[in-house]
């Protein structure tokens, strides 16, 4: 690892540029480099963002570059791909996204990558699996944002339903970054109490709370945003910046990420969103929560959905 606080973002569309904005506004890195097939667009995005950071106390260098910049980058963010359209699931974008990612991986394999690769492109878990497999890098250095955004949506939903601050809600969404994700409610706390205890003791403020409502809102929030404005961008940008900060500042912090499972939770040869300790070397440890029997079934079912689409991608070569 180089620790230059340099981040390369491959893909200068909505998601990539919002990742760069979140990184810049939080002063997480010293240099951001955009790589995109549309060089004119990438340069324009870099110029626009560079203007905005002039108003900050401390501003990173923001520019365009090429794949040679990946060699001394601490983190390479892959956000290239196709946007999800209204009515589509993330899994519906698989074919077009893989075609795009193949070109990215081919170029990455021509460089000597010393840093961490974090993938965002949907379908998130299948793309994370593909990039790790085809770059040949160890799983601690290639992983996806996974259920980090789903987790934020879970916490936001619980906070809204129980009229508390989202920071007072601790829990995770796990499995697919998508419609089969699950919430292990046995590990959900509100204000330090088990969620069911809190709901029981504060029934007047949790009238609309139910596990079904939380799960439904976790699944549907992204589609509601896409239906309303055509894309999601702010949430995932902040999620990526948070994960990058954990790496660059060596936080050893527990965050959900899509990482290759090799026996954890009884699953093998599949990337799925699970809580992990993240630091300078990437994934330092996968945290295995003790799930209930029903939660294990839900998580296994979500992994099966991911695994089926990994097989589908492999058959279309």
UniProtKB/TrEMBL annotation:
Transmembrane segments: none annotated. Pathway: Fermentation; pyruvate fermentation to lactate; (S)-lactate from pyruvate: step 1/1. PROSITE patterns: L_LDH (PS00064). Pfam families: Ldh_1_C, Ldh_1_N. It is an enzyme of class 1 (oxidoreductase). Residues 6-144 form the Lactate/malate dehydrogenase N-terminal domain. CDD domains: HicDH_like. The active site is at residue 177. Substrate binds at residues 90, 122-125, 150-153, 232. Signal peptide: none annotated. GO terms for molecular function: L-lactate dehydrogenase (NAD+) activity. InterPro entries: L-lactate/malate_DH, L-lactate_DH, L-lactate_DH_AS, Lactate/malate_DH_C, Lactate/malate_DH_N, Lactate_DH/Glyco_Ohase_4_C, NAD(P)-bd_dom_sf. SUPFAM superfamilies: LDH C-terminal domain-like, NAD(P)-binding Rossmann-fold domains. Belongs to the LDH/MDH superfamily. LDH family. Catalyzes the conversion of lactate to pyruvate. This is L-lactate dehydrogenase. The gene is ldh.
